[in-house]
Amino acid sequence: RIVLGIESSCDETGAGLVRLRGDGTVELLADAVASSVDQHARFGGVVPEIASRAHLEAMAPTVRRAFADAGLALSDVDAVAVTAGPGLAGALMVGVAAAKAYASALGVPLYGVNHLGGHVAVDTLEHGPLPQRCLAMLVSGGHTQLLLVEGIADKITQIGSTIDDAAGEAYDKVARVLDLPYPGGPPIDKQAKQGDPHAISFPRGLTGPRDAKFDFSFSGLKTAVARWVEQEQRAGREIPVADVCASFQEAVADVLTAKAVRAAREYDVDTLVISGGVAANSRLSALAAERCAEAGIALRVPRPRLCTDNGAMIAALGAHVLASGAAPSPLDLAANPGLPVDTIVVH
Ligand code: ATP
Ligand code: MG
Ligand code: FE
C-alpha cells in the first residue's frame, strides 16, 4: 500500500511517498522538500507568517514533485498522513487543509499524526524495523527531548525535555553572537573542526547530582558563550571563533549523549535513535557512537536529509499507523499546535 505524507509544521514544506509492504516494513519512494529557511535568515529565526505563506505557495508543487520522483499517480495512494502538530498554527493548517483535500478527493483514509513521532519513524526507512522498545533523542531547532518508544504506532512517552532553549536554538543564538550565518548549526560545526574543544570550559546545564535526571537546559550555556565573547571584545582581544565553536559544541554533545546513555540504562533499552536537525552534528554523532559502543547500545542516526523536517517521515509514521490497524482521523481534523507527544494519531 502507498502512503502520502504531508509536513508543514515549521519552515519546511514536505511531501513524501512510502510503500508499506505486506511484512510491515516501509520503503521510501519519494521525499520532496521546499524550505523557506532563506526567507527567515535575516530575522535569525523562523517568522510564522512568512512560513505559512511559503507553505501555501509550495504545497501543491511539492506534492506534484513527490509523485513525479516516485513515478506514481495520485490514484495509486491508499492513505494520506499529515502532521497535525505540534508546530506553528498557521503553518500546520496549510498541510492539514491540503491533506484533507487529497484524502477526500481520493476517497482514502486520513491520518493526522504527531510530528515528533515522525522524526522517530523516519529511521525505519533507513535502518528497518525498530525493536519493540527503544529510546529516541529528538534534537532540533524547536525540540530537545528524550522519548521512550514502546511501539512506534501506539506508545511514545516523554521522559525528559529541555526546560528552556532547544539545542538547535542554542546553535542559532551562538552563531548570531559570533556573526556566523543562520541557521547556526552547519557553520558552527564547520568552525569547530578547526578549534580546540577544551579551550574554554562552558557550563553543562542540569548535570548536577540533584538536577532532574533527563531534562536539559541550554539557555545558561548560550548566555555563558555570549558573556565570554563580550568580555574578550571589551578587553580588545580577537575572538578565537573556532575555539569558541568547538568548546560550545563539546558542551552540547557531552550533555546530550551523557543523558541519553544514562536514560537507556535506566529504562533498560539497547537501542538509541537520534533524530532532528542537530543529529546532523558531526561531534554529536561521533561522541554518541563512542559512548553507545562503551555501553553496548545500538545507535541509529538517519541520514541528515531525513533528520530535518520532511514529508517522508510523516508518510513513514502514517504507514506504521496504517499497519497497526488504528482508526483514521475524522475529516474535520484540526491542527493542534500543542499536540502532546503521546498522541500519535489524532481521533
Ligand atoms: P522542529 O523543531 O519542528 O523539528 P526545525 O525546523 O527547527 O523544526 P530542523 O529543521 O529539524 O528543525 O533542524 C534545524 C536546526 O538544526 C537548526 O537549529 C540548525 O541550526 C540545526 N542544525 C542543522 N545542522 C546542524 C549541525 N551540523 N550541527 C548542529 N546543529 C545543526
Ligand atoms: Mg527546519
Ligand atoms: Fe521537526
TrEMBL record:
Location, primary (coarse class) = cytoplasm
SUPFAM superfamilies associated with the record: Actin-like ATPase domain (SSF53067)
Task: Give the Enzyme Commission number.
Answer: 2.3.1.234
Q: Which keywords belong to this entry?
A: Acyltransferase, Cytoplasm, Iron, Metal-binding, Transferase, tRNA processing
InterPro entries membership? ATPase_NBD, Gcp-like_dom, KAE1/TsaD, Peptidase_M22_CS, TsaD
Residues binding substrate, per UniProt: L138, V139, S140, G141, G142, D172, G185, D189, N281
The cofactor required is: Fe(2+)
Q: Where does the UniProt annotation locate this protein? A: Cytoplasm
Specify whether Nucleotide-binding is a keyword of the entry.
no
Q: What class of enzyme is it?
A: transferase
Q: Which residues bind Fe cation?
A: H115, H119, D309
Swiss-Prot/TrEMBL catalytic activity:
L-threonylcarbamoyladenylate + adenosine(37) in tRNA = N(6)-L-threonylcarbamoyladenosine(37) in tRNA + AMP + H(+)
On cofactor binding, the record's note says: Binds 1 Fe(2+) ion per subunit.
Where would I find the Gcp-like domain in this sequence? 27-315
Family that this chain belongs to: Belongs to the KAE1 / TsaD family.
Described function: Required for the formation of a threonylcarbamoyl group on adenosine at position 37 (t(6)A37) in tRNAs that read codons beginning with adenine. Is involved in the transfer of the threonylcarbamoyl moiety of threonylcarbamoyl-AMP (TC-AMP) to the N6 group of A37, together with TsaE and TsaB. TsaD likely plays a direct catalytic role in this reaction.
UniProt name for this protein: tRNA N6-adenosine threonylcarbamoyltransferase
**From what organism does this protein derive?**
Saccharopolyspora taberi
